[in-house]
Amino acid sequence: MTEARKASVLAANVLITSGGSHAIVLAITAVCNEGDNLLLTAPAFPHYKAVCDSYGIECRYVPMLADQHWQVDLDVAEQLVDDRTRVLCMINPSNPCGSNWSRSHVTDIVRFCERRHVPIIADEIYSELVFKGEVFTSVADIDTPVPRVILGGGAKHVAVPGWRIGWLCLVDPAATATAWMRGMDRLAQLHTGANSVCQEAFTKALLRTPQAHIDNLTDQLQRGAAVYNRLLEHDIGLSFDPPRASMFIMIKVECDRLRDIESDMQFYERLLDEENVQLMPGMIFGMDGFLRATISRPPAVLNEAVDRIIAFCERHRRSRGGGGGPFRAAGSIPVTVVRGQGEGGGCSKERISAVLSVPFCPSLSISL
Fold first, then answer.
1. Tell me, which fold does domain 212-317 have in CATH?
2. Mapping DSSP to helix (H, G, I), strand (E, B) and coil, where does residue 96 land?
3. Where in the chain are the domains?
4. Are 244 and 134 contacting, i.e. CB atoms less than 8 angstroms apart?
5. What is the mean pLDDT of residues 124-134?
6. Is 245 exposed, middle or buried (0-12, 13-18, 19+ CB in 10 A)?
7. Rounded CA separation 322/203 (Å)
8. Which segment of 17-26, 63-72, 206-215 scores lowest on mean pLDDT?
9. Short-list 281, 218, 211, CA closest to 244
10. Quick count: other Cβ atoms within 10 Å of Cβ 281?
11. Is the dihedral of CA 298, 301, 306, 307 positive or negative?
12. Residues 293, 366, 42, CA angle at the centre, nearest 5°?
């Protein structure tokens, strides 16, 4: 980062928050009013959509392209901007995709925002967790008059999520977003901030944690990501773009290759029922047809989980000739799932087409 760019990062424009989620709330609600809209690159961390829904803000997903290393489709973004678009939110490196955009693509996003006069909220909480051979580019390292609020926190690379230490920093070289900063500062006073003991300890952790520790952590994550390559050795309708950063991998599922699996949510439910392995359905991140898994678990756990995912897909795989009746695993029994309570304490029953596969459901639960 050049000296001129460093000069745009001012201590007066930094707020300490109660975790990264608190920073998201402040950044969005200080710039958006009810009825406004924002652009969110998707798949995205679900808290952004939850904040929008809570405050009457329309969340407009801008798709990221899985076959282009999860780059943002800026052509779609052009079509989504209108006179009530207040900000573009981006997460880089990505949760849930594990992507790390090139400097060229980050610059393209910034230039788009310049042209459309849209400020940026850049969630860079995974910026320290980029894999060997990768280079992270912050939006703060691009020369532009566009105001940028950069979000960070201690839950990831310093691995202290329970401390609730987060921060935001406004980079505003043209001094056009002072009201945004003032609004975030005022809103921050509505919430008890991070406690002073953790702030002191976290400061020491930032200053004294050796780079070798971070390198070891990212090396473990990279080895965890490599375990998922085993999925590609089987013709089971799963594929992915290899992660380059963060703690996650986004897996595409071709439901038409599987029997009795019509969506990512159904894949999630059936896999959990039959194999006791929990992946997160893509629909909660704003992109159907995908599943998010973590790469941070120990290799033995990841290998066991991958074994079960492969077994699940093999059992559900359609024959090459297609057709066939409803799938039922050997020894399985159909069940009726009872969900929800009616008024007055009565149960509202919903008949669910489900299979409880007792022989195939290991006692050890694996949440990815």
1. Aspartate Aminotransferase, domain 1 (3.90.1150)
2. coil
3. 10-208, 212-317
4. yes
5. 96
6. buried
7. 60
8. 206-215
9. 218
10. 20
11. positive
12. 20
Distances (CA, A) of 302 to 90, 111, 298, 306: 29, 40, 6, 6
What is the model's pLDDT at position 321? 52
For residue 50, what are its two tokens?
Answer: 């939850």
Structure tokens that stand for 19 in this block: 């975790």
From the list 313, 320, 296, the residue with the least C-alpha distance to 231 is 313
Domain 10-208 and domain 212-317, same fold? Reply is: no
Quick check: 325 and 247 in contact, CB under 8 A? no
* pLDDT, tens digit (0-9, with 9 covering 90-100), for 140-161: 999 999 999 999 998 888 877 8
Identity of the residue numbered 99: S
What class does CATH assign to 10-208?
alpha beta
Digit-coded pLDDT (tens) for 13-65: 999 999 999 999 999 999 999 999 999 999 999 999 999 999 999 999 999 99
Residue type (1 letter), 221 = L
